[in-house]
Design a protein that fits this description.
elongated, mainly alpha, single chain, 5 helices
Length: 150
């Protein structure tokens, strides 16, 4: 058996470690993708407790991914070899999913702000009565006709 054949079949420990890191990173990226999809579903049904509970796990997962890939910032991510292209594509998809979730959160916050703003409008002609924390009709709203006056 020629020696070249034996040498080509052997891998160095560094190559084994890198392949193992890539394999682990791909598995964690799939886990992250699943978490982001679950996060989206939680946001759609407004299950904020479950959403909040998953945030620390997601952050730990992101730290593990950065450590496995050896990423300290955007420049080091660009320096990954071509064998990491599948991982980078997976992470780009996760980034897009995160942005989708961020847009949904933004829309929900805007809706809440709009509702709060409509309740806080100081329009003296408004017939809507607003109650304070003690259950009393807010004095700033008494200028309009209330239900008791109608």
């Amino acid at each position: 058996m020629p020696i070249d054949f034996l040498l080509s079949d052997m891998t160095t420990p560094a190559t084994d470690t890198q392949a193992s890191s890539l394999e682990q990173a791909l598995a964690l990226a799939k886990t992250l993708e699943d978490m982001l999809e679950q996060e989206f579903e939680q946001l759609k049904v407004q299950d904020l407790d479950a959403f909040e509970a998953s945030q620390s796990t997601k952050n730990e997962l992101l730290q593990q991914l950065a450590q496995l890939a050896g990423i300290q910032g955007p420049d080091s991510a660009d320096a990954l070899g071509p064998e990491w292209d599948g991982f980078k594509a997976h992470m780009a998809h996760c980034r897009d999913m995160h942005r989708r979730n961020e847009v949904l959160i933004g829309r929900k916050i805007d809706a809440i702000r709009g509702a709060l703003q409509s309740l806080q409008v100081q329009d003296p002609t408004s017939s809507v009565e607003i109650y304070d924390r003690l259950g009393k009709v807010s004095r700033s709203r008494r200028g309009g006709r209330g239900y008791a006056e109608a």
